[in-house]
Amino acid sequence: MNILGIGGYSHDSAAVLVCDGELVAGVAEERLTRVKHQGGVPRKAVRYCLDAAGLTPDDIGHIGLYMRPFLRIGRRLPYRMTQMVHSPFYSAGYMAYELAHNAQYIWGMRSLCGRNTKLHFMEHHPAHAASAFLVSPFDQAALLSVDYIGEWAVTWAGVGRGTRLEKLRAANYPNSLGVFYSAITDYLGFLRASDEYKVMGLAAYGDPEYYDEFCKIIRIRPDGWYDIDRSWLVCHYLPGSLKGYFSRKFLDRFGPPRQAGEPLEERHRNIAASAQRILEEAVLSVAAWLHTQTGLKRLCMAGGVALNCAMNGRLLRESPFEEVFVQPAAGDDGIAVGAALQLYHRLTGADRSFVMRDVRIGPAYTNAAIRAFLEGAKVRYETPDDLEGHAADLIAEGKIVGWFQDRLEFGPRALGARSILADPTRPDMKDLLNKYVKHREEFRPFAPSCLEERAHEYFTNCYYSPYMLFVYPVEPDKRDKVPAITHVDGTARVQTVSSDINPRYYRLIQAFEKRRGVPMVLNTSFNVMGEPIVNSPADAVRCFYSTGMDALVIGDYVVVKR
Ligand SMILES: [Fe+2]
After folding, report:
1. In angstroms, what is the span from residue 490 Cα to ligand 1's centroid?
2. Which residues are catalytic?
3. Quick check: 34 and 538 in contact, CB under 8 A?
4. 428-469 residue pLDDT tens
5. How far apart are the C-alpha atoms of 482 and 520, rounded to whole Å?
6. Is the pLDDT of residue 224 over 70?
7. Pairing relation of β-strands 495-497 and 447-451?
8. Which end of the chain is more exposed for a tag (fewer CB within 10 A), N or C?
9. How close is the Cα of 331 to the center of ligand 1, in Å?
10. Distance from the CA of 434 to the center of ligand 1, in angstroms?
11. Which tens digits make up the pLDDT trace of 8-23?
């Protein structure tokens, strides 16, 4: 049985293919169109999935989609009607948009169908939760999905047993932690629904001095859930509010918002720290509630907020759950996985047999294809016998090295297939990477890829973290050894690398340790600011020559700038 899953449509569209219950291919549309957060019907992604398995649209029996349009309209329109008194023009415009958007969504998705294909509009949050639970190694788990908004729910808690998911409780719009964090992102002069991780990075530089006041904006209830006080955060357009987020009261208390490009002051850093802290406390509180309700030891999480790896690190350390699994593509792209697998189990009644151990399910390029491209572009390359050793030499010499291998990663992180690698022991490496390649804000940390069985020596209680979704404290006596990946608060967003999942990357890190004495390399995504991660050799070579990268290790070949 062949099932396509579609994640996203408003933004971050993606497609995955599930054949007989196994996830065989998947890619985000942005990687193929080269437009970051690309939304709409993911035609190129669907085409890739079909080609990867040698299928045509007629071979697809079912398509699982990320949102139920009539549930969405049925909840959003009546609410907007109630807002007509405050903002008639905005509300009327919103309702017209909502109807047109959903009509386009249904129509667009229908165009993906072959002769035998049935469309299934799946509910947003259960599909998020399924994207984590149904690929996790857990038989039973508590489930938590937290994002900006689904059809109407914003935070969804449930329980998964076998192949069944059951809702326990949900909070609805506008009571959204995702809206809150996006609003703070916007207030601090970053791009909302895109730059939230910048707020997380900035938070480590501040003191949560406004935390007590933020506790009034997000009130944690005695039962463990939370309420957003809309006298502070209006959550959507109302007259007199700023961009539909902040009330006059908020602006009077916390000052004017920062405009993009303005200097970051202590006030901004402290607001980021306070927002991060209240988000963590609210999610910890809901998680504690969920633990009491279910009595289970394991938690599965998804939804855009679950990409907050500082929050996830605290959940791992401080929540009552012993194990936490987060879907690596926790945003709307990853819903494709949940929608397809939920559908598969529902339609077949089959038990689970698939566990996600690798996110590299995207396009791959053979050595022959890579060589043909390099020769066609008149790029001079070498073919070293010991590729990993050669790459390790380059990194140990302080070079910035593009690393292009195997299939493209699914989800927002580069995990050793489309990565830029550097020496984590050099104190100046962060600045060099920013100066020559990434051009990003100096407050954002870089992350390490560490040999799995050695990770606990450097990072407290870190044994298995293959997807860079959790922040761990760097052992105090090791911080000076790896300054380029240690954040200002003494933590790191670790990726553990195992020899059976990614042997070539593992061998590279081993070879690097022989040269520089640490079992890890600095790993950042293979892209420049504002662009999606590279997919093809052409994307990689273009990125390589338009930045200050020193070398490119692509398939079996090495390209070095002279
Ligand atoms: Fe979502």
Report:
1. 31
2. 11
3. no
4. 999 999 999 998 888 889 999 999 999 999 999 999 999 999
5. 9
6. yes
7. parallel
8. C
9. 6
10. 31
11. 999 999 999 999 999 9
